[in-house]
Design goal:
Layout (H helix, E strand, L loop, with lengths): L2 H14 L5 H25 L15 E5 L14 H9 L8 E5 H15 L8
Antiparallel strand pairs: 1-2
Bound molecules: zinc ion.
Length: 125
């Protein structure tokens, strides 16, 4: 796309999807539906349970976790959770780099990783 085309598309999107318009609302509904569908796809792919403790009673508490705690390594493929779902579902990133954890296990893992990296004065109690 050349500069002129890019300028045209930017202006089109700015006006066509302007705040308060029906197009904007429709776009948001479609984006939400796509995100929900991709999340369901991810949950189906990994199984709808925490891979550490087995929690499975409410999928809202399940989170996609980067195994090995190096999320920045995948950031060149996906800069948001939504695009991360897509690149896992389409096979761009191998499924084995991630796991499903419940919110408790994910928080405990995150805090443990921080504790390992922090100096004693920064330790989280
Ligand atoms: Zn868990």
């Amino acid at each position: 796309m050349n500069d002129q085309q890019q300028k045209y598309h930017r202006e089109f999107n700015r006006t066509y999807f302007a705040p308060g318009t029906a197009n904007r609302e429709r776009r948001r509904e479609l984006d939400r539906a796509t995100h929900a569908r991709n999340r369901q796809g991810i949950l189906d792919m990994y199984g709808r349970r925490c891979s550490k403790c087995g929690f499975d009673s409410d999928v809202r508490a399940l989170q996609l976790d980067h195994k090995g705690s190096k999320p920045w390594e995948t950031h060149r493929y996906a800069r948001s959770g939504g695009t991360l779902y897509v690149v896992i579902l389409n096979g761009t990133l191998p499924k084995e780099l991630f796991q499903i954890l419940c919110a408790n296990c994910n928080t405990i893992k995150r805090l443990s990783t921080l504790e390992e990296r922090s100096t004693p004065k920064n330790t989280i109690l």
